[in-house]
C-alpha cells in the first residue's frame, strides 16, 4: 500500500488511526494518546509530501522511556499472545542519538532487514553514510509494537547503549516471548537487524 513515492491521504489516516488503536488496546494511558493525537495533522501533512522508499514504514508513534518505564513498554510488545519482558534496568540504558522527551513520531522507518546479521558498529557506519539514524531502544520497541517485525527477524537498537556503552539493547524471542536483552557493540546476533529512520518530530 505504501510502495509509491507519495501516499494517499486516506492511507495515511488509516495507518495513523491503526497505531492509535493498537496503543489504546494495549493499555496506553489516555494522556499519551492525547499527546500523539495532537500531532495528527502535522504527521499527515508531512508524510503525504515525503518520498519514502518502497518497503519502508511511513511513520511510527513512539513513547520514549522518559515517559514510560522500559519494563512497562515491553509488556505492550506481543508475539503469539505472549507479552514482552525486559532483562535490562532502565537506569543503565542511554541513547547515543537525540530524541524528543515527549511522545513523538519517527518517519521513513526501515525495519532492520537492510542491516541483517551486522554488528552495531558496522550498522551505525552504514546507516550514518545514508544520512539516517539508528533507532533507540524506545523506538525499537515501538517498531515491535506496531509491526510484525519479530515474525521476520529480531531488532538491534543501535541508537542506545546499556551499562558502560559496550552493550546494545536488542529485542528478540525467548521461548516465543519477546525479550529485551543486550549484545556487545562489536558482535552480531543471528537473524537480528538494526533498523533506522530518516527523521523524528
| Count of runs of 4 or more consecutive helical residues | 6
- Rg, rounded, reads 16 Å
First-to-last CA distance: 23 Å
Strand order of the largest sheet: 4-11-10-8-12
Oligomer: single chain
Unreliable sequence segments: 1-5
Pattern of helices and strands: HHHEHEEEEEHEHEEEEEEE
- The coarse silhouette is globular
The proportion of residues forming helix, as a percent range, comes to 25-40%
SSE class: alpha+beta
As for the number of domains, it is 1
Please give the largest β-sheet. 5 strands, mixed
Beta-strand proportion: 25-35%
Task: Describe what you observe in this structure.
The chain is an alpha+beta fold and 201 residues long. The chain has one domain. It is 30% helix and 25% strand. It contains 6 helices and 14 strands. The chain has helices spanning 9-25, 30-37, 40-49, 70-74, 120-129, 137-146, and strands at residues 57-62, 78-79, 82-83, 85-86, 93-95, 104-109, 133-134, 154-156, 160-162, 167-174, 177-184, 192-193, 196-197, 199-200. The strands form 5 sheets. A 5-stranded mixed sheet has the order 4-11-10-8-12. The chain has a 3-stranded antiparallel sheet with strand order 1-6-14. Strands 2-3 form a two-stranded antiparallel ribbon. Strand 2 and strand 3 form a beta hairpin. Helix 1 packs across helix 3 (40-49). The chain starts with 8 loop residues before the first helix and ends with a strand. 44% of the residues are buried. The model is unreliable at 1-5 (pLDDT under 50).
Task: Offer a concise description of the structure.
This protein has 201 residues and is an alpha+beta fold. It has helices spanning 9-25, 30-37, 40-49, 70-74, 120-129, 137-146, and strands spanning 57-62, 78-79, 82-83, 85-86, 93-95, 104-109, 133-134, 154-156, 160-162, 167-174, 177-184, 192-193, 196-197, 199-200. The protein has one domain.
Amino acid at each position: 500500500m505504501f510502495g509509491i513515492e507519495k501516499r494517499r491521504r486516506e492511507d495515511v489516516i488509516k495507518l495513523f488511526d491503526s497505531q492509535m488503536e493498537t496503543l489504546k488496546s494495549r493499555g496506553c494511558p489516555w494522556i499519551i494518546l492525547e499527546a500523539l493525537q495532537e500531532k495528527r495533522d502535522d504527521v499527515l501533512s508531512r508524510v503525504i509530501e515525503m518520498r519514502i522508499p518502497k518497503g519502508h514504514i511511513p511513520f511510527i508513534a513512539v513513547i520514549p522511556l522518559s515517559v514510560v518505564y522500559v519494563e512497562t513498554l515491553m509488556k505492550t510488545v506481543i508475539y503469539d499472545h505472549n507479552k514482552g519482558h525486559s532483562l535490562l534496568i532502565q537506569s543503565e540504558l542511554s541513547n547515543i542519538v537525540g530524541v524528543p522527551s515527549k511522545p513523538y513520531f519517527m518517519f521513513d522507518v526501515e525495519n532492520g532487514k537492510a542491516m541483517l546479521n551486522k554488528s552495531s558498529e558496522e550498522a551505525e557506519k552504514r546507516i550514518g553514510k545514508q544520512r539516517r539514524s539508528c533507532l533507540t531502544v524506545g523506538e525499537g520497541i515501538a517498531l515491535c509494537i506496531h509491526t510484525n517485525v519479530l515474525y521476520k527477524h529480531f531488532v538491534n537498537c543501535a541508537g542506545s547503549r546499556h551499562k558502560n556503552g559496550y552493550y546494545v539493547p536488542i529485542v528478540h524471542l525467548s521461548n516465543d516471548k519477546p525479550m529485551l536483552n543486550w549484545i556487545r557493540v562489536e558482535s552480531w546476533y543471528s537473524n537480528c537487524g538494526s533498523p533506522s529512520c530518516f527523521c523524528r518530530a
